[in-house]
Design brief:
By secondary structure, this protein is α/β, with parallel strands linked by helices. The protein has 10 helices and 7 strands. About 40% of the residues lie in helices and about 20% in strands. The two termini are about 25 Å apart. The chain binds S-adenosylmethionine (SAM). S-adenosylmethionine (SAM) binds next to α6 and α10.
Length: about 230
């Protein structure tokens, strides 16, 4: 079956409203400083100057979760991937305002960054409120599919963590079904509270807040790489 690793196409918006002058200046000044190189292998030493644990966020939206995690773990290196320019502007603002030296960004497809990292080198991967693609005929576009999960599994260290958040009931069921079929991840939930309540070290994202405002339930999945 096709999935994002074989389709290699981004479907969402790349840009929303036109950037204000201050935002355009932020992009011009800060994005080149923080962007990961366009090609070639990537590792912690190249990106951060030392051999630190790496965490990757796929589709960081406006970057509030990425920035909060990076602030909480200053000795780790964070790579945020997001093709939506207006979201990238948000992340750049967080990095500048909070003085974060441990964040690198890729404005584009997260898969192209993941595949350039060494195998078994990543401490955590975050996939928070991925685009749900609720129609069955679009299921192949979902990031939760065996192709992307094979890649995530290959890059995570044994014992590393994969976090998935969603408020979409179809995506929730789909993800549980796909993840249950995998032998390389253990679901860390022992009781319903473990996936119904947001863990203390899981900062709220913009999408999550919006979902809660609309009365949606949100599910928090944590998986450990075997
Ligand atoms: C529904 S939004 C959620 C944003 C954010 N994680 C949050 O919870 O607020 C999904 C995001 O995934 C991004 N996205 C989609 N495909 C992606 C890919 N292949 N690599 C990186 N980001 C991607 C979209 O641009 C969008 O910003």
């Amino acid at each position: 079956m096709n999935d994002p690793t074989t389709i290699r196409r981004l479907y969402g918006r790349r840009q929303g409203h036109k950037l204000r002058a201050g935002q355009a200046a932020l992009v011009e000044e800060w994005l080149p400083r923080l962007s990961v190189a366009e090609a070639g292998p990537l590792d912690a030493a190249t990106l951060f100057g030392d051999d630190r644990p790496i965490e990757v966020e796929i589709g960081f939206g406006s970057g509030e979760h990425l920035a909060a995690q990076a602030e909480a773990a200053p000795t780790h290196g964070f790579i945020g991937c997001e093709p939506f320019l207006n979201g990238v502007v948000g992340a750049l603002g967080h990095v500048r305002d909070r003085g974060l030296g441990n964040v690198r960004l890729h404005m584009g497809d997260a898969l192209t960054v993941l595949e350039r990292l060494p195998d078994a080198s990543v401490e955590r991967v975050y996939l928070l409120h991925p685009d749900p693609w609720p129609k069955a005929r679009h299921a192949k576009r979902r990031m939760i599919n065996h192709g992307p999960l094979d890649l995530i599994a290959a890059k995570l260290k044994p014992g590393g963590e994969f976090r998935l958040g969603t408020d979409d009931p179809t995506y929730c069921r789909w993800s549980m079904m796909v993840m249950n079929a995998r032998r390389d991840f253990d679901w860390l939930a022992k009781t319903p509270h473990d996936f119904l309540d947001r863990p203390a070290d899981w900062p709220e994202t913009r999408y999550e807040r919006k979902a809660r405002r609309q009365g949606h339930e949100v599910w928090y999945f944590r998986y450990r790489r075997r």
